[in-house]
Amino acid sequence: MSGQRAAFLDIDGTLAFQGDVPEAHADLIRRARAKGTLVFVCTGRAKSFVPPVLSEIGFDGMVATAGAYSEIDGTVVEDRTIPLDVADRLIAALDRHGARYTLEATDGLYAKPPMLETLHARAARNNAEDRKHASPHEIMAVLDVREDLSGIGFGKVGVMHSPILVSELAAEASDDLEVLEGSLPGMGAHSGEIFRRGMNKSVGMLAVAERLGLDIANVYAFGDGLNDLEMLASAGVGVAIEGADPRVLAVADRTCPGPDQAGLVGVFEELGLA
After folding, report:
1. What is the pLDDT tens value at each position of the chain, 274 positions in all?
2. Which of 12, 20, 47, 146 is most buried (most C-beta within 10 Å)?
3. The CATH number of the domain where 129 resides is what?
4. How far is it, in rounded angstroms, from Cα 192 to Cα 202?
């Protein structure tokens, strides 16, 4: 096993605050890489929805679509999309119940026209909680709106609103799907994410670690959300953001302040990563 160290960073609420990466964090990434630490983005977002500013900062690769996609220096390690037959049944269930959703693919973010109405309505709310996540304006800027979504290979569905529970939608389509409910503030189990069973950020992180021959003791993970649970638990060192859900804090080895305080700087330096 290699003595090389690697850090895997969630974006929203960990690296970035309300969509912006603090300059202190951007400088930190550069310093860490100059010291020899490999730094990867590890996000629930699809690659097509990763903010361009991250490319400007520079990373050694990424884990995206909540673990379904991973790459090192632009070379794909894994891209595990939902099987097309399951995808078609899932889209049919979503449409049958009038859900508002996006298909998150490596090459784009796709939705049907009614999703735009929901995004415009959410943007008009200008809710502070919403700004902790991907903003409606950010989504609309990259959204590919189509009447027909068949044949698109995607790794995850983001459900912004459903008249029935998101878990019920997934169950109608296949037993091979899993759900993270309540990923949007104030929406409860009528919003969430649908993905392949067993898929999570740790899957992508461990695929990258295996490809690079890393000792898991030298893998550091940083996150704040429920979709970071497995990543934090399986890393050699898991760091949760202060104020995160108690379930996230429970699996972490330590905590650090949030991105509004450029909290990664202190913990990276304490751990000798930068």
Report:
1. 679 999 999 999 999 987 799 999 999 999 999 999 999 999 999 999 998 889 899 999 999 999 999 999 999 999 999 999 999 999 999 999 999 999 999 999 999 999 988 888 888 876 555 555 667 888 888 899 999 999 999 999 999 999 999 999 999 999 999 999 876 655 567 899 999 999 999 999 999 999 999 999 999 999 999 999 999 999 999 999 999 999 999 999 999 999 999 999 999 999 999 9
2. 47
3. 3.30.1240.10
4. 19
Q: Residue holding tokens 């898929």?
A: 199
Same domain, 151 and 135: yes
> Among 196, 231, 249, which residue terminates a domain?
196
Pull the structure tokens for residue 22. 């603090």
What percentage of the chain's residues is helix, strand, coil (to nearest 5)?
A: 40, 25, 35
Containing H/E element for 66?
none
Secondary structure of residue 37 in the 3-state scheme: coil
**Residue 115 neighbours by CB under 8 Å, 6+ apart:** 100, 101, 102, 143, 145, 160
pTM, to two decimals = 0.91
Tokens for 154, please give them. Answer: 């995607």
CATH number of the domain that residue 44 is part of:
3.40.50.1000
163 sits in which H/E element = none
Q: Are residue 157 and residue 221 in the same domain, yes or no? A: no
Q: Residue 121 belongs to what domain range?
A: 84-196
CA-based max dimension of the chain: 53
Torsion sign across C-alpha atoms 248, 230, 152, 182: negative
